[in-house]
Amino acid sequence: MKLTHALRCLNGVLVREALRFVHQRERFIAALVRPLVWLLVFAAGFRAALGVSIIEPYETYIEYEVYIVPGLVAMIQLFNGMQSSLSMVYDREMGSMRTLLVSPLPRWYLLLCKLLAGTLVSIFQVYAFLVVAIAFGVQVPLIGYAAVLPALIICGLMLGAFGMVLSSLIRQLENFAGIMNFVIFPTFFLSPALYPLWKMQESSDFLFLLCRFNPFTHVVELIRFALYGQFNIQAAAIVSFALLVCMSLAVYAYDPARGMIGRKPVGN
Amino acid sequence: MNIMQTHALEISGVSYRYGTKLALGDVNFTISPGEFKVLLGPNGAGKTTLFSLVTRLYHTSEGRILVRGAALNENPARALSCMGVVFQQPTLDLDLTVRQNLLYHAALHGLSRRQAVARMEVELTRLNMSERMDERVRNLNGGHRRRLEIARALLHSPDLLLLDEPTVGLDVPSRRDIVEHVHKLSRHDGIAVLWATHLIDEIHEGDSVIVLHQGRVRDDGSLADVVSNSGVSDIAQAFDILTDSRTS
Question: Of B135, B157, B179, which residue sits at a domain end?
């Protein structure tokens, strides 16, 4: 693989995803409205019910709106990862995925380009959300806006790779909605996105255990610490490991010799 | 290796199964540079499966596929860089413009922007589409979308052009234009063409024909040879005999 070819391919995929994103304004609006509804409506309703004690990385008591911002950032990336996988299923059904897969570069590299493109889009959405959140009086320390970028890259890649694995398992677009509900809701609610895990532990040790084993828990924590200029090494290690596993599975799944893609007749 | 003597495509002993169902059985044929080969078969013959194997969407576990001497399994990058593909299903991005679709394809094949723009001009001009560069693909009619897919497949100057039923769903004039255009490409530019179809009238004098039926090659040769081998007077009758579809 020549470096210039690889870079041109990456540039091509990034530009295409960016153009598609620009053309799909509804997708951007939906990506922004979803966390804002949680921030402005859900948080207002539950502020009194869900008190948050002082926990790391916070140095004092915080308002509930402030607590859920990292979780909502992670939610944007989770939904974007799922959206990307939906678009891969769509592309595969409609055929445009084939254009990518028959290009003369290693399959793993093509998938990585797709992942990077999806991550780039999700980071743009996250920063748009953080800017709007400032307008509603919810902000993080200034350094957090820069410190969170590496965390967003690694988390975006991991969630995108997770979506890619899912897309390889889904044969038809119609099946996707069920998988989305089956995957997104448990992933999101079994995490500290909306409530600290000690609250979950108070209710159920079993659910607490599930939360601890949920990689999304560590995505939320990595982002939370980064937004306050701190590095959560445990969360970073777990998210990196999950990225490695998901990426390996995605490469396997999209390998024509071994994976799940291309085992079904599609024409004549 | 003398590149002029290398087949554009060489398929030997290729078989493929969906579970226990045999989709292709011991398929063998070659295509030389500049040859226009029609892969003729009824629906379900295995044409698309064969295309999926040649483009490496499926893995060839039995048999061997060489593109310009490069083995698809061992050296996929070189093999894939020599071929342009027009799939049966449209694969254009409808929300992007003609230019954006072509630039995307050029990037996947490692062309610089300058090279890409120059090649786009050439290919779109040949198809009388150069003035539509900034139109959204969604606004093009079916014929123009197909032409654009052909232009895209040729952007990286491949030696081998694969077209899987490229005229499906098009009106008669559009079909005729596309068939003529690809024949011209084969004659004038020396591009080897594999054209899958089930439509007899897309075959021209001088084409080679492979008749595929139930996953097996029933005959392979020049149009005249295939007709005479069946002992009939035209390819339509030969096709009926070779595919057991003649009604008595």
Answer: B157
Contact A267 B92 (CB under 8 A): no
What are the tens digits of pLDDT across the range B51-98? 999 999 888 989 999 999 999 999 999 999 999 999 888 889 888 999
Give the DSSP H/E element, type plus range, for residue B187: helix B172-189
Q: Are residues B19 and B50 in the same domain?
A: yes
Contact A98 B47 (CB under 8 A): no
* pLDDT tens, position by position, A92-150: 666 777 888 889 999 889 989 989 999 999 999 999 999 999 988 888 899 999 999 99
The answer to whether residue B48 is domain-embedded is yes
Whether B47 and B7 share a structural domain = yes
Are B127 and B37 in the same domain? no
Q: Which of B59, B90, B109 lies closest to A103 in CB terms?
A: B109
Q: Distance (Å) from the C-alpha of residue B188 to the closest C-alpha of chain A?
A: 26
Query: A95–B87: do the CB atoms touch at under 8 Å?
Result: yes
**Can you give the residue range of the structural domain that contains B105?**
95-157
Stated pTM of the model: 0.84
Could you tell me if B60 and B181 lie in one domain?
yes
Q: Are residues B146 and B166 in the same domain?
A: no
Q: What is the pLDDT of residues A209-260, one digit of tens each?
A: 999 999 999 999 999 999 999 999 999 999 999 999 999 998 888 876 665 5
Instruction: Quote the tokens at residue A240.
Output: 């990196």
